[in-house]
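ARCHIVE CARD
Drawer: 12
Card no.: 0347
Subject: one protein chain, sequence and derived structure
Cross-reference: see card 0346
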Amino acid sequence: MSADPHHPYSPAVVAAGLVFVSGSLPLREDGTVVAGGRAALDAAVDTMRRRMATVGGRLEDVVKLTYFVTDIALRDTANEQFLDLWPEPRPARTVVGVSELPYGSVVEIDAVVKAP
């Protein structure tokens, strides 16, 4: 994923032995938004995985996640996803309720990952 002139930031950056992954929306490869629930959460993780892979980051090396959700009730589904994806010891995580996200998305996830 390269920088888009409409989105002038890096998808992922390596600094101080860590990979910092920009907020990842629930987007399909064609750029359309995946709506609602677990499907949106999984799509956001897929976006995050693609972004971290650009600098060699891996899902199993995630140390911190922040989930931004437009409906705090999505937290329960996020907990299920979290348990499915990360075994003990799990990464640190924060869930923040927000009023709106880009493109009408219901979730955006950013991450800090141990660098390869």
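Annotation on reverse: The mean pLDDT is 92. The chain has two helices and five strands.
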